[in-house]
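The data are passed on as follows:
___
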Amino acid sequence: MIFTSENILLIGSILLFVSILAGKTGYRFGVPALLLFLLVGMFFGSDGLGLQFSNAKEAQFIGMIA
């Protein structure tokens, strides 16, 4: 995957939207938000959708931006 500014904004906005929905849903049912964020991360990672990420430079770039 090439990290252009459009892709970064798209992925970031999708993750933010899903996290907000998970947080509001979790608050309604009394589930801790951290647990839901972990589940969202697992869903969008290699455990759920099967997205493989093995580039150390891009991981460092994402970590510095986060």
The chain is about 70% helix and 0% strand. Helices lie at 5-29, 33-44, 56-65.
